[in-house]
Amino acid sequence: MRWLVGWSSIAASLGTVGAVGNSGEGRTVHPVGSQLLWGDPDPLWAVGDWRPDEIRVIGVATPGGAPTARLAVLGCCGATDEQLRVGLLSARGGAMRHLTAWPGSYTAVVQIGRRITVASDLAGARPVFHTPWAGGTAFATAALPLADLIEAQLDIGHLAALLACPESPEALGDGTPYAGVKRVPPGHALILREGSREITGYEAVASLAVAAPQADPVHAVEGVRDALVEAVRARLTAPRHAPEAAPPDPGPVPGMGPADRRAARGGPVAGIGADLSGGSASATLALLASGLPGLPGTLLGHGAGAGERLLAVTFNDLTTRGDEEELERAHAIAADPRLHHVVVAAGEEALPYASLDTGPLTDEPAPSLVLAERHRRRLSAGSADHLVGHGARQVLDAHPARLADLLMDRRRRHLLRPVAALTKAEGPTAHSLFVPLTLYRAARRLARTSYRTGLESAAGLLPDANRRAPDLATPADASLAALAWSRPGPAARWLTGEALAEVSVRLQEAAIRPTSVQRPGEARARAALARGAADHRILEQATEIRSQRLHAPFLDNQVVRAARALPESLRVQPGARAAILRRVLGGAGIHDLPPGWGAPSQATSTAVTRTGLRMALPDLMALFDAPLLADAGLVEARVVRKALRAASEGAPLPLDGLADLASTELWLRRLLNRRGTCWTGTAAPRRRAVAGGVAPARRTLQP
Fold first, then answer.
1. Which residues share a beta bridge with 91?
2. Do 187 and 516 meet the contact criterion of CB atoms below 8 Å apart?
């Protein structure tokens, strides 16, 4: 895990921090395995296996008496040194939005005298955390090191909100699973001045009184194309890194090729690669990276490098035949001579919920923990720099609540195609005849419901979520449930009444809190994006392979900004994501795509998840024999075991909710079994984070 950490304190001096502990005397403390980027008086460290080109520090010469001005950029950033220098000079005047507009995925830290500015990204894949410490404020890009620093307890109320309303920022607030450690919201920056802190947004907020001018769909798609091309180009132009020495090849093995043997040894291939699932998102990145024109030094101006072939990795699940069409499309795309296609075949050992007893401790819990072994097998066959299509669904697709935004702008005719598509998905039943009218009424109700009223209504319904769980058996049912300012998550039906009541109080408090309210569809879409980006961040940590970097260009700031300029009328059309990406590829000169490209495959993933649940049922029953979640008062073990058994037998239960429960319980066990700390020095914390375990925190459960 890679992260950066620093602090701002009134009593800070070179190499020391005052008022640490109870004695009040200055003592040294620094993170284990760190690289000091700058010190005196507000230090900044980079921790972990950062590559040399991933850490860039720029300083500008200042005349005598002028404050120090320097900029640190950590991650993959496509800006040149001169652009960074110009950005630093502009930041001296207080501007910071341009620091987030360069291609790539990175974290920027600016120091102007004693003022420090740390910007989080728009999606939430590069978050920033902070906590009061030593008379000032400590910040980091990971929450666990800060929890170690202050020896934090678990925040059980936040865990309850994460299970009950995972896509409701109002319930989650700015908290983390660690009491006292706060998160900077996406699209905001943390500003520190001699220990004091301020959080401010750097993105313009659209007015609710006047409808924003609708962008031309053609120009909006061109903006997405340009942003996505620049995002991929930033990865291709970065220096190549050879993986560290892996164990030697044992020689030929029956049934295994060289790529299979290398993947079994656990080392990535040198160069750049991409996922190739046959879907629209991963195929777009693979095709762009293999044939992006205009790269200097490449053969005929094409490809990932001079004579270099892009490694395209396709995962083939042998336990199901539902993905045969996607596999055929992947083979058709990989026929391009600029692609080197590798198919990773796996059986029961790579199903969801496999190998739950292994895996690293991640910063926070996330549903991707139960899929870590599945993704790790695919990524181990990838390259040192591997492109993935994560985030495309949340960035480009239309959230059902955007139907209410269309009604607010009096664009009723644009509801015809999405409503007709949902009616067709229902099939020829008596219920499908009422789908258009039901959806229109729900969208109109949401458009006329204020933010405060919507949250208060959700807070009133939440305590009964474990007794009146909605039936989301069809796409229309799921869309109707999503037409609300806030709704319970899939795991809420298994939480205790006490936990749901605590989350309900959080929503009620948020309803009366002043806030910059957005349109309901836009707000729900941003919340879903933040949820998906957080899950991707934890997936990176859970599947981390030495010397490998995962790149998700769809979560980059400039791609998110360009996608937000897409008009709602274009987003809500059926198949909009595939159509947009088809235009992106067409603008890059790629037109020959296999039939059925962009078709959804949700049914296949559901069947695979249910199969994995059935195979891992004994391990899951043991996991919830005496769960820590029950000790915290969040669930009843008997209820969860009954739900697991019923779901494995084919009962129509929300599998996402069970994944949330299993991943949170798994994360808690790994956290409480952890030993050691992230810090060293004479003033380093002597105890691990979350001291005291779960049971003491139950008595201090707060909303």
1. none
2. no
Where residue 207 falls (left for φ over 0; alpha for ψ -120 to 50; beta otherwise) is: beta
Check pLDDT > 60 for residue 693. no
Quote the CA–CA distance of 381 and 376 in Å, as a whole number. Answer: 9
Q: What is the C-alpha to C-alpha distance for residues 617 and 231, in angstroms, rounded to an integer? A: 42
Bridge partners, 29 (sequence order)? none
Please give the backbone phi and psi of residue 291, each rounded to the nearest 5 degrees, phi first: -130, 25
CA count, 13 A, side-chain hemisphere, 417: 13
CA gap 279, 461 in Å, rounded = 38
DSSP per-residue codes, 506-566: HHHHHHTS------HHHHHHHHHHHHHHHHHHHHHHHT--TT-EEE-GGGSHHHHHHHHTS
DSSP-assigned states of every residue in 320-371: -STTHHHHHHHHHHTTSTTEEEEEEEE-GGGSTTTTTT--PPPSS--GGGGG
Contacts 24+ apart (CB under 8 A), 571-575: 571/396, 571/397, 571/398, 571/402, 572/398, 572/402, 572/403, 572/406, 572/414, 572/415, 572/417, 572/418, 573/398, 573/417, 573/418, 574/417, 574/418, 574/421
> How many Å apart are CA 535 and CA 542, to the nearest integer?
10
pTM: 0.92
Spatial separation of the C-alpha atoms in residues 228 and 604, rounded to whole Å: 28
What is the CB-side half-sphere exposure of residue 301 using CA atoms within 13 A?
A: 3
Residue that is written with structure tokens 């296999």 in the block: 594
Q: Are strands 383-387 and 269-275 parallel, antiparallel or unpaired?
A: parallel
Provide the token pair at 542.
Answer: 């859970």
User: What SS3 class is residue 402?
Assistant: helix
Local confidence band at 413 (pLDDT 50, 70, 90 cut-offs) = confident
| pLDDT-derived band at 305, boundaries 50, 70, 90 | low
Closest-CA residue to 623 (of 355, 364, 361, 348):
355
Characterize the bridge pairing of strands 310-317 and 269-275: parallel
Residue 8's DSSP bridge partners are 137
Q: How far apart are CA 537 and CA 336, in angstroms?
A: 31
pLDDT digit string, tens, across residues 141-172: 999 999 999 999 999 999 999 999 999 999 99
Task: Give the chain's mean pLDDT.
Answer: 85
Amino acid, single-letter form, for residue 249: D
Strands in 552-691 per DSSP E: 679-680
Tokens of 93: 């005047």
Tens of pLDDT, residue by residue over 565-620, are 999 888 888 889 999 999 999 988 888 888 888 877 665 688 899 999 999 999 99
Tokens at 198, concatenated = 């301020």
The string over 101-114, giving b where at least 16 C-beta atoms fall within 10 Å of a residue's C-beta and e elsewhere, is ebbbbbbbbbbbeb
Q: What are the C-alpha distances in Å from 513 to residues 451, 452, 485, 501?
A: 11, 9, 15, 19
CA 241 to the chain's CA centroid: 25
Residues pairing with 36 in the sheet: 45
Selected residue with higher pLDDT from 433 and 201: 201
- CB neighbour burial string for 555-565, b if at least 16 within 10 angstroms, e if fewer: bbbbbbbbbbb
Cα 426 to Cα 330, 418, 423, 475, distances in angstroms: 29, 13, 5, 7
Ramachandran assignment for 656, one of left (phi > 0), alpha (psi -120 to 50 degrees), beta (any other): alpha
Q: Evaluate whether 136 touches 146 at the Cβ level (below 8 Å).
A: no
510-522 pLDDT, tens digit each: 999 887 777 899 9
* Burial degree of 163 (CB within 10 A; 0-12, 13-18, 19+): buried
Taking the C-alpha atoms of residue 156 and residue 153, their distance in angstroms, rounded to an integer, is: 9
Q: 327 to each of 317, 323, 343, 593, 699, how far by Cα in Å?
A: 10, 6, 9, 14, 52
